[in-house]
Amino acid sequence: MAFHDEEDFERGSGPEALRAVDRAAAALAARTTSGLSPAALTLACLDWWMHLAAAPGKQAELALKAWRKAARLGAYAVASSFDRSFPNCIEPLPGDERFSAPVWQDWPYRFWYQAFLLNQQWWHNATHGVPGTAPHNEAVVAFAARQLLDMASPSNFPLTNPEVIRRARETLGMNFVAGARNALEDMARKATGRPPAGAEAFEPGRNVAVTDGEVIFRNHLIELIQYRAATDAVAAEPILIVPAWIMKYYILDLSPQNSLVRYLVSKGHTVFCISWRNVVAEDRDLGFEDYRTQGVMAALDAVNAVVPGAKVHAAGYCLGGTLLAIAAAAMARAGDARLASVTLFAAQTDFSEPGELQLFVDPGELYTLESMMWDQGYLSAGQMAGAFEMLRSNDLVWSRLVHEYLMGERAPMNDLMAWNADATRMPYRMHSQYLRQLFLDNDLAAGRYRVDGRPVSLLDIRVPLFVVGTERDHVAPWRSVYKIHQLTDTDVTFVLASGGHNAGIVSEPGHKHRHYRIREAKLGDLHLGPDQWMEATPPEDGSWWPAWESWLAARSGPPGPLPRIGAVGYPVLGPAPGTYVKQR
Question: Are the beta carbons of 37 and 360 closer than 8 angstroms?
């Protein structure tokens, strides 16, 4: 009888109910840890600590390094107290601007920040190279140590930051009053769901996302915008832009002077762009396949209706590029030849080396994150932004807090910053599939990712590729993006642009201090590794946009008459930027 009871239990809803209890418990814990898994962090720390405890050689090395650093610091303290020009014993890492102001060379501040940097260097040595530690756990421990050290930096405290002290003298302490006012305003805005101070000055349709166009298609997931021509004739083949839904599309149509969409239109291209819906809890079951069918494929059908018989140059940004690569591979497998080329902006197709984001992707961490999304139906914009801020906590967290709350000065808002604050939500099912199948298991690069029940392969793509990576990308590191060379069997033109994940793409002509490298790899050419590629490809000053536009123009056919706006079955539904972009 007990055996039959157990069978009935397994066949019924009992196991699912108990798994739901587990999910609810994990979701409750995740709310207190901002989605981080205490179990995963504990396991990583134990792995590092136990292997360090069993490595007397590494312990001796660290003890010796600590002794040498203490001796260097002591000698420096004595010498620098008598000679202001005495050289520092350690310099900040490239990009670390916390101690760049001249007042940091005054005593005792120079001693404090030199001690901090030596301590930071020692902890880097302590968290790396411990024999036997799993690479992922080592990276997690090193990241956690760096976060704690950044928190304890002397630049973060008013009594140890000479810039703050000088500012207090100049304002008679009113900088702290202004900082407190800024902090209260920020807390009130966060509690009420309002955007950061100054972001209200940038509104889609008013001074950003203002390129002239019309929404010609809308379904539950997308609005498709067709932009009006700005020339007397246009290229025969149109462009379809697939932005990521982790962001709103108008990063590619910011202010008129730095709008990639406007730039393409001004050069005689017919441009279409997807604007994704900002999902809510009821959209929890939307999957990655829904984004392909209701997004890319539905938009492609609309473009074909407006410009019948013409092939399409498709461009995808970030996650939109990954989706576009999957769609292109599935189309190639099915014999669908509607694409003329594929362009990928900062988009990964091989996730074996995804950069620091892999710190947040392991089975334990994913379970915690999935439980939180299971509970609320989506990953919120704030939860997602927190992970990106942690990757660059010096720039995005601590430096901003010092500037706005201790110095009492608001950083001026610009269009890119306002767009970055206008974030979106990710549906539970889709984001879980993305993280597990692509990020954790790397199914696309391994040939295991399935569309319509069958695996797709990027090797099936035969159209030329134009791929852009950026030098300082923390989201899609350029060496990871570069792996597209090993996954495809077609011509690949690769561009490495200066800047990061966003600023490297929004790199309009005339923008100062920009450069890029570009090289085409023809089918059959010998493969160059990323470092070899960089050595063999000299930098060129300026924006990479003209190089891409010339590449498109050479493959888009002769100029012809302007297409109509919309088509049969695709009526004009309203002016750009549409309604989905304004959803909060």
Answer: no
Determine if the pTM surpasses 0.85.
Answer: yes
Task: Give me the helix-helix angle, 14-33 and 2-11, nearest 10°.
Answer: 60
9 has pLDDT over 70: no
d(CA 477, CA 29): 31
Contacts of 240 by beta carbon, 8 Å cutoff, 6+ apart: 272, 273, 274, 299, 300, 303, 312, 313, 314, 315
* pLDDT (tens digit per residue) in 97-132: 899 999 999 989 999 999 999 999 999 999 999 999
**3-class DSSP state for residue 322?**
helix
Task: Give the contacts of 412 (CB within 8 A, at least 6 positions apart).
Answer: 198
- Residue 179 CB partners (closer than 8 Å, separation 6+): 404, 405, 406, 407, 408
Distance in angstroms (rounded) separating the CA atoms of residues 376 and 383: 12
253: closest CA among 419, 405, 388?
A: 419
pLDDT digits (tens, 9 = 90+) for 66-106: 999 999 999 999 988 888 788 899 999 888 889 999 999 99
- Per-residue b or e along 302-340, where b marks 16 or more CB atoms closer than 10 Å to that residue's CB: bbbebbeebbbbbbbbbbbbbbbbbbbbbbbbeeeebbb
Q: Three-class SS of residue 498?
A: coil
Instruction: Measure the CA–CA gap between 468 and 506, rounded to whole angstroms.
Output: 12
Active site residues: 318
Q: Which two tokens stand for residue 179?
A: 């900082």
Distance CA 295, CA 330 (A): 14
